[in-house]
Amino acid sequence: MAELLIVYHSRTGGSRQMAEAAAAAARDETTTVLKTADAAGPDDLLQADGYIFCAPENLAALSGVMKDFFDRCYYPVLGRIEGRPYALMICAGSDGENAARQTARIATGWRLKQVQPPLIICTHAQTPEAILAEKHIPDDDLDRCRELGAALAAGLDLGVF
Ligand SMILES: Cc1cc2nc3c(=O)[nH]c(=O)nc-3n(C[C@H](O)[C@H](O)[C@H](O)COP(=O)(O)O)c2cc1C
User: Fold this and answer.
1) Where is each Flavodoxin-like domain found (predicted)?
2) How, if at all, do strands 119-122 and 85-92 pair?
3) pLDDT value at position 102?
4) Which of 3, 19, 71, 160 lies at a C-alpha separation of 20 to 30 Å from 35?
């Protein structure tokens, strides 16, 4: 069975809920490994056949912990995972585009194949208190994460990418 690796970072819970929803749906289709960014490393990337990366946008960039995952793994796996499919999920307050663009550039460096446009979910938190509060991602947004997880996992299992 093909293996899907989902790597995520979350500060206030939104990205975690998104990653967990994608993982739960993906597990119905293929072997799925869910790891936090600080626990994941090059061996996890090498072992998997495809990826979902999920993280918040912080200060108009990918969150630092997720960036550290890519920084640690970039050269150890460069040239060894080319052509593998991936998808991207970003949790943001009101934007998310820069984090998505930045992550896509890293993935292009690895020569990964993006199999669908980035899924950006905005929490619409505006005040410092709301931004720092624990997030609750609505079920219809989590449905979009479930669809993404199921589609990537099913495609991996069928070998269509
Ligand atoms: C330090 C910090 C910086 C942020 N910068 C942005 C930003 O540049 N753009 C944006 O859309 N949201 C921004 N946000 C909002 C978060 O992306 C949003 O709260 C999201 O839910 C965080 O995901 P998480 O719950 O997985 O941590 C920022 C939040 C924090 C704490």
Assistant:
1) 4-161
2) parallel
3) 98
4) 160
